[in-house]
Amino acid sequence: PTTLLPYSERIQLHTNPTAKRILEIMDRKKTNLAVSVDVTTAEEALEVVRRVGESVCMVKTHCDIIEDFTLAFSEELVKLSKELDFVIFEDRKFADIGNTVSLQYSSGVHKISSWADLTNAHSVPGPGIIKGLSTVGQPLGRALILLAEMSSSGSLAVDGYTKQTFQMAKDAGREFVVGFIAQSRIDTDISDGEDWLILSPGVGLAAKGDSLGQQYRTPKEVVGDAGADVIIVGRGIYGIKGGEQAVKDEAERYRKEGWKAYEERLQR
Ligand code: BMP
After folding, report:
1. Which residue in 115, 199, 221, 222 has a CA-CA distance of 20 to 30 Å to 267?
2. Residue whose CA is at the smallest distance from ligand 1 atom 5
3. Which residues of 9-34 are buried (b: 16+ CB within 10 A; e: fewer)?
4. Does the keyword Ribosomal protein apply (predicted)?
5. Above 90 in pLDDT, residue 233?
6. pLDDT, tens digit, for every residue of 46-80?
7. Which of 48, 60, 151, when mutated, tests ligand 1's pocket best, judged by the most ligand atoms within 8 Å of its CB?
8. Is 241 a known active-site residue?
9. Which of 29, 79, 93, 208 is labelled catalytic?
10. Which atom of ligand 1 is nearest the CA belonging to 149?
11. Whole-number Å distance between alpha carbons of 252 and 237
12. Tell me: the pLDDT tens digits for 172-193?
């Protein structure tokens, strides 16, 4: 199973440029941490990114929660992603027919495809969603991940839904779809010679969950036991009390925890 290979040896198993870059950054910066920057102003978001940028392989955004979103903001984010060496993941969770998602991806206020290296989609509409998004993103070297499982309690993305999502990605080929949002390795390890990236949200060292259904596990549980590649942490890092240095320190703490769990996994 590719889970037992170092990130560096998995680079060559991908053709998509964004997937390769993610693995290269992880290896170079010794980090499997993605920080989810779920704050509501552009300045706050950029400030968090400047604090955590050195510790992460990826910054995850929800551009539609930023009240003063402009393309100047996304340009600054792209600039920081080059300076501090991380990939931008817009957590858009597309969920419509192919034609509509291709417009949502390329147009509107956000023009996501112009600045986000990676985005994601629900599989519920069927394979047309991948086709629609790939028309826009693939020529730009972008990548897509599908939501196969969710961290929230009562999620319907389980069992057969998860399996069929994996099959949909396999059928689409790995030129554009490069992995999954999931809580486990799903079935990816049994498909020979194919490497898929597993990104897991719902990671926290302090809380067990929130009042709205979120459920947290530790980096050790997520990377070590469940076999995920990237841990996604939001409030656990940007929400820490104690000011800017505390946010920076907390990102480093998660980076170290995530990396230790990965190194231990390789020893097995
Ligand atoms: P937090 O660590 O603050 O709970 O944030 C988790 C982030 O990951 C949020 O941005 C949320 O939208 C996202 N997310 C999630 O929590 N669970 C999923 O299954 C999929 C997600 O994208």
Report:
1. 199
2. 234
3. ebbebbebebbbbbbbbbbebbbbbb
4. no
5. yes
6. 999 999 999 999 999 999 999 999 999 999 999 99
7. 151
8. no
9. 93
10. 19
11. 10
12. 999 999 999 999 999 777 666 7
Tokens of 112: 């996501």
Q: Which of 85, 118, 107, 168 is nearest to 18 (CA)?
A: 118
